[in-house]
Amino acid sequence: MSTxxxxxxxxxxxxxxxxxxxxxxxxxxxxxxxSKKGPADYxxxxxxxxxxxxxxxxxxxxxxxxxxxxxxxxIEGTDKTHTWIADPLDGTTNFLHAIxxxxxxxxxxxxxxxxxxxxxxxxxxxxxxxxRGKGCYLNDKRxxxxxxxxxxxxxxxxxxxxxGRPGHAQFLKELHQVAQKVSGVRRFGSAALDLAYVAxxxxxxxxxRNLQRWDIxxxxxxxxxxxxVVTDADGGVDPLTAGSILAANTDLHPQILAxxxxxxx
Length: 265
Known about the structure:
Elements: H1 6-32, H2 39-61, E1 65-69, E2 73-75, E3 79-90, H3 92-96, E4 103-110, E5 113-121, E6 126-131, E7 136-138, E8 141-142, E9 155-158, H4 168-179, E10 184-186, H5 191-199, E11 205-208, H6 213-225, E12 229-231, H7 239-242, E13 245-248, H8 252-264
Parallel strand pairs: 1-3, 9-10, 9-11
Antiparallel strand pairs: 1-2, 3-4, 4-5, 5-6, 6-7, 7-8, 11-13, 12-13
């Protein structure tokens, strides 16, 4: 299946629509970099606008579905079995600094299970999409996780807790344990895209703590559909609820998990 279903078309259309405004704002923001006043306010306005566009497009296509968004929180729908989980701008700091690595991401949760996901980077025009049981794709190309088996050959993605967030000490311990065993560690600043990169085999694995549902919902499905393994960062089976994630192929996942556990001991 390299042609998206009707459900995925709805999601892809909504993310592209939200991204159009972000693209315009991104262009203007690049010009604003020389100015000290107001870019942060500008970004939060862009974020809100993009979420409104997403909300309206998804609600029009599937009336009654619930909506959980970064900006507006949970809006209950009349259909209690379906909830959209959306982040209109993942990678806000990149966006703010005119770094072209950010995404619009949407997942659909049906009765507690993620059944479809879309993550779109408007700056590169790369759209990652998956539906449960039907594979993971980048544009029209089927994706598989990387096949490397040795940690020493692996490049991992991660996220660093930023200003005002808990977990710095724990992160530094984990980084110390992981970095001395791998080929490289990257911090790109968008968990949604990082997980898509694992599905595409660009990263061999990814871990991060203190994440929200909308950061990881689509990515969890991408990686499982691309043949990878996803747990929380402690090896638990429900990363969406735990708010942490560890994703890799079947060979590397236990090796990375062992390093994270060593950091805790």
